[in-house]
Amino acid sequence: MSIFEYNGSAVVAMVGKNCFAIASDRRLGVQLQTVATDFQRAFKIHDKLYIGLSGLATDAQTLYQRLVFRHKLYQLREERDMKPQTFASLVSALLYEKRFGPYFCQPVIAGLGDNDEPFICTMDCLGAKELAKDFVVSGTASESLYGACESMYKPGMEPEELFETISQALLASVDRDCLSGWGGYVLLVTPTEVQERVLKGRMD
Amino acid sequence: MSRRGDWVYENNGGTCVAVAGADYCVVAADTRLSVGYSILTRDHSKICELADKCVLASSGFQGDIKALHKNLAARELLYQHQHNKRMSCPAMAQLLSNTLYYKRFFPYYAFNVLGGLDSEGKGCVFTYDAVGSYERTGYSAQGTGSSLIMPVLDNQLKSPSPLLLPARDAVTPLSELEAVDLVKDVFASATERDIYTGDKLEIVVINKAGTKREYIDLRKD
């Protein structure tokens, strides 16, 4: 049994017109037992930068704490927020530091860069970055998410439509994965506001 | 890929889908045959018409699939000779299950989806695992692209939930044209992200008028 499948997770991020959305499931399990139904996997780094961490939950939390620490130091030194591209390189470097004893996490990074240009990327547990223009997925439900996003995504969606699309893709995918689910948590970020919604799906 | 000297199977990849409607059934499969990271051919059919209202699509190890299809076609011919009629889809479903379980301890590496019309003319789809466990459903996908396709079918086919009481048929209320369009769409999406799915899509539609076959090009990379 894979260490990546110990807790169960599903994370997805999508790009829209001058906005992005990042969504995750809410289940925390210990193999087949569900231990929490309100577990947070998508975290804020600053107002226009979010990271979702799938995989082993303890590593997701530790990595998040380390990243927030590094970003706060950056803010003190540079007196500004980190750009998403820079942050992605930071995450990649932190993961590669542990090349022969890695964090068992697959991050999904989403943010608004210069001129509020949406930026998304994902990486494997060793820090190999993969930029995408449309959507990125990770977690135990990743194959289902690939299929659902590929079918439902179209470029240049407005915020409302993007929210609907990412929610449907997430819920349809986690319903076919026994290790993820128990609802969804979606963050929709535009240059002016951030909307957080909790989705009710099949509670199993 | 196995280094053991006794590994007798290989996975030739590919995806099969079937969708049942009120008076039709759509069975579709891609035509790519692969081994490892290579393509053996872009033009290999995974679909076998076993009876006039019964079509089988299988993905997995093509050696076992060819043997399985030959076995079932022979049994259907025997049935025709003995009963003076062709086998119905539910009958073939049971036969396939028994044939697969017969080799429970040296299985056919075949992931099957059987589609057709039942004795009342309604669409039916039966989905199997490699050793013959089967279930009648409204739709199914099997093969390397199945995990990419199933969530989209769940979301788009508007079939009644299997949890509702009284139990009702899981056939989709969509029309034949809508179902075929959806199947083409899901294969296009699966082709993008699954390396073993692509080249061409073979779609077989069974309704009371008979059987129609259609070929659609898919991405070849």
Characterize the largest beta sheet of chain A: strand count, sense, and whether it forms a barrel: 5 strands, antiparallel
Alpha-beta classification of chain A: alpha+beta
Principal-axes shape call of chain A? globular
Order of helices and strands of chain A: EEEEEEHHEEEEHHEE
Distance between the termini of chain B: 22 Å
Category by helix and strand content of chain B: alpha+beta
SS element count, helices of chain A: 4
Kindly estimate the percentage of residues of chain B that lie in beta strands according to DSSP.
Answer: 25-35%
The beta-strand count of chain A equals: 12
Q: State mean pLDDT of chain B (0 to 100 scale).
A: 94
**What Rg of chain A do the Cα atoms give?**
16 Å
**How much is the average pLDDT of chain A?**
96
Oligomeric state: heterodimer
Family (chain A): Belongs to the peptidase T1B family.
Pfam family, one (chain A): Proteasome
InterPro entries (chain A): Proteasome_beta_3, Proteasome_bsu_CS, Proteasome_sua/b, Proteasome_suB-type
Main location (chain A): cytoplasm
